[in-house]
Amino acid sequence: MPQDYSSTKHQADDVEQSQQQDAGSSSSSPPPKKNFFGKAPSFLKPAIKWIAEASGASKGEYAPLINRGKGTLELPRQTKRKIIVTIVSIVGALFILGGIIVWTIMHNNDDEPIHKVPKRLTDPEKVVIDVPSKESLREYLRIYTSEAHLAGSDADKRQAEWTRDKFMEFGISDTNIETYYPLLNYPIDRKLAIVSGPKELQYEATLTEDVVEEDETSADPNVVPTFHGQSKNGTALGPVVYANFGRMEDFQYLADRGVNLTGTIALMRYGGAFRGLKIRAAEQFGCIGALIYSDPIDDGPIGKDGGENPAKPYPEGPWRSPSSVQRGSVQYASIITGDPLTPGWAATENATRLNRDDSPGLPQIPSLPLSYQDALPLLRATQGHGICGGKDWSGGLTTVDYCSGPSEGNAYLANIVEDRIGPIWNVVGRIEGSEEPDHAIIIGNHRDAWVYGAVDPSSGSAALLELARTFGVLLKKGWKPRRTIIIISFDAEEFGMIGSTEWVEDHRDWLNEHASVYLNVDMGVGGPDFMAAACPSLQRVLYEVTSNVPDPRSTTNETVYDAWSKLSDQETPVVGQLGSGSDFVSFISHVGIASADFAFRGDYGVYHSNYDSFHWMEKFGDPTFEYHEALVKIWGLLTLRLSDDPVIPLYPGDYATQIGEYAKQLPIYETSGDDSHKDFFKSIKKLAKATRRFERRRGRLVERLEEEFNNGTDATELPSVLSKRMRVANERLTHFERGFIDPEGLKGRAWFKHILYAPNLWTGYQSQVFPALSEALEANDAEATLHTILQATSRIRAATRFLKADYDEDDDEDDDDDEFEDDN
């Protein structure tokens, strides 16, 4: 899971939430005046006529109020009784007219933020609010963090079996463990030392984390050593070069200024890009080894004054201490996700595999992670050599100037690891749907951790287990979801989202046909601040659900939605874009399943270290476990809304609006009149038009279904025409996201198939919008640009076609929308 999850909340800051409108044609004549109340529904016309008649305007009785002879205002001559009747009639008519005005405004104001009004909870939803227990969550977290449980280890298997047993104990009887056999690696020996140059600069790194007396698990002799998952086995000897964040632009900056990079060992700090892509960039510039350290200005105590916790390193504060090391995978996350030896097919026991050196997703130079305590002597060795300081290049170590080097002496790096094809264990529970069992809502969290993983991922694992217990309570009360719910505890996420990817690849055909939504929680709780990233079609239900869950720290009955809005510093909270870094990747990027990822964040400086422990959580993360409880409620309400609502609460209209905004940010928007671009922008317009029609019809369908259910009609007794329309609507909503999947995949990384979203090629965590097109434009490749425009146009048209089903034959509005031009 990414360390800087908070970056996702800024990715959509400049994406407006207003509805995109089709451009009108120009004309020299003034535009017609808009009727504020819109088109009056046909059933209101008799009422309007009655109002006119009741106020004395019946046929033949339009008596003038001005006496033209006298020039005075006079009422028509009427009897006293008639005057009284008229007054009473007018009052009644005004009352009815007021009702009409209210009805019309409510039904014509599409931008009304309905999510601000908490939804009346159903009985199952009340159970989801009432059942979750802080005490249960605390106990589950204590158990998950009681031992280090690296993927593929004996402890990992024990926890998989315990999780399976708990699912079954809770009443989810259809639970099993699915085993896969990916490439994993484990540390055998590691060494880093400056072995030549001035004697006073020579040293050997400790590569260990200090024991913290008050945190008993930090003294565990079985703690996982500091290393990089999926790193290259080998050694390197060469001078050290400091390359800032290790981004392509950082290496290019050095190369442009004459700094020799060939044959060097790159020292880079965490942040700015996924760790594996730092190593990929170092390779491209001729480096022979890589070191990645945590600088105190990033997740250490430097610059953290004014926060909710002390600006001190752990254990005095929540921030990274001098000896703390961030472990993590160095697989190329933007190229391949999952097992790097079986890209695109499941890593079953007898699967065909690539040779390690032939995998496009693995580093070819050795690497190690470092603490800032061990990085400081390396920066001393580069002091005074090469380029020093500069914008964004200096960190929080005040005794050095962050000079690039190369160092005068050589460093020796040894990363001796064992590559192993071994078992991992996904725990999969299934609650069969009662009415639409062929539509599935999938919820997941990964279970494996680099060490104890209190925040990452065990806070999410505890929440998943408590949610399973809550569903068990509902099952015992006789509840069954309308749609199937699948609950998964994934393994080996830390090595590269392996457990989830292999499961998706193994079940791809079934998922393509039946999966409606995937809801992911990874680092569930690390503080009090709610954040979410999701497909645009899920934004509205996220807003609605968080409006029903109280904010634990509020003393004024504020909801999580209210706190989220304040955090976003705008009325409507920011929902980020999905990039990479957790188990949602294969669902959205490979198959095209609408997905969301959400959590509570805070002052979290022990990511992927020995100190991400139960003690840290009790002291800093969530001492009362109130946020764990709130997380379960949000996750549970989302799951129930998506699995139980008659019509799945996905909103493609919100998606179309976002796509329109994305398109405006493309450089080709200025040349949208060119023939090569015209069809692309036309396809976006047609998608917006199709979603408006779909949303209008869906709204009427929902109203009719509510009428039936309010009248006591059982779901199995619905009129056949309504059942059919509901089924077809849900089919369209389920498959809408699939329209954006291109079987060909993205150029150079065909595993990623979504044409709208993919991890940024060189940063990894961050999402890239229209990735293939953006990369072609950046490369100024006209041929690739044309190809990707055609590719994107084709997939937007495919998504549009998914919304064209006539499930509401009574729709007589906007007949020009009923037929679309041939998109083929």
What does this structure look like?
The chain has 824 residues and is an alpha/beta fold. The protein folds into four domains: 42-109, no CATH class; 126-182 and 424-644, Aminopeptidase; 184-421, Glucose Oxidase, domain 1; 659-817, Transferrin receptor-like, dimerisation domain (Transcription Elongation Factor S-II, Chain A), CATH 1.20.930.40. 35% of the residues lie in helices and 14% in strands. The chain has 21 helices and 20 strands. A seven-stranded mixed sheet has the order 3-13-15-14-16-18-17, sandwiched between helices. α10 packs parallel to α14 and α18 (675-710) packs antiparallel against α19 (720-735). The longest helix has 36 residues, at 675-710. The model is unreliable at 2-80, 100-114 and 807-824 (pLDDT under 50).
Q: What would you say about this model in short?
A:
The protein is of the alpha/beta class and 824 residues long.
Largest sheet: 7 strands, mixed
Tell me the total number of β-strands. Answer: 20
Euclidean distance between termini CA atoms? 40 Å
Per CATH, the architecture of the largest domain is: 3-Layer(aba) Sandwich
User: Class of the largest domain in CATH?
Assistant: Alpha Beta
Q: Specify the structural class.
A: alpha/beta
The proportion of strand residues reads 5-15%
- Residue windows where pLDDT falls under 50 for at least 5 positions: 2-80, 100-114, 807-824
Q: Name the CATH homologous superfamily of the largest domain.
A: Zn peptidases
Gyration radius (Cα, Å) is 31 Å
Gross morphology: globular
Number of helices: 21
- Helical content, roughly? 25-40%
The total tally of domains equals 4
Strand order of the largest sheet: 3-13-15-14-16-18-17
Averaged pLDDT, please?
87
Reported by name, the CATH topology of the largest domain is: Aminopeptidase
Organism: Phascolomyces articulosus
Keywords: Membrane, Transmembrane, Transmembrane helix
Family: Belongs to the peptidase M28 family. M28B subfamily.
InterPro entries: PA_dom_sf (IPR046450), PA_domain (IPR003137), Peptidase_M28 (IPR007484), Peptidase_M28B (IPR039373), TFR-like_dimer_dom (IPR007365), TFR-like_dimer_dom_sf (IPR036757)
